[in-house]
Amino acid sequence: MQARKVLEQEFRVVTGRELTDMAVDVFGLGLDSLGILSLLGGLREAGYDVSLDDLLSAASMNEFVAMMANAE
Question: What is the DSSP letter of 22?
Fold first, then answer.
């Protein structure tokens, strides 16, 4: 579950909040466009080859974490 920990850490860096509900999609996170881009940038810096399309197409953060794990 390395990918999940990285996502949680980057979400905390971008928002100052904990990512508590992995069942929501990106729109349920309450991020604005700059926050989404910052989150993706942090994930890329951490070594995950994920795109905006990946994030937007994921039905939940759980699904996005699975995509991240496959992109390691």
Answer: T
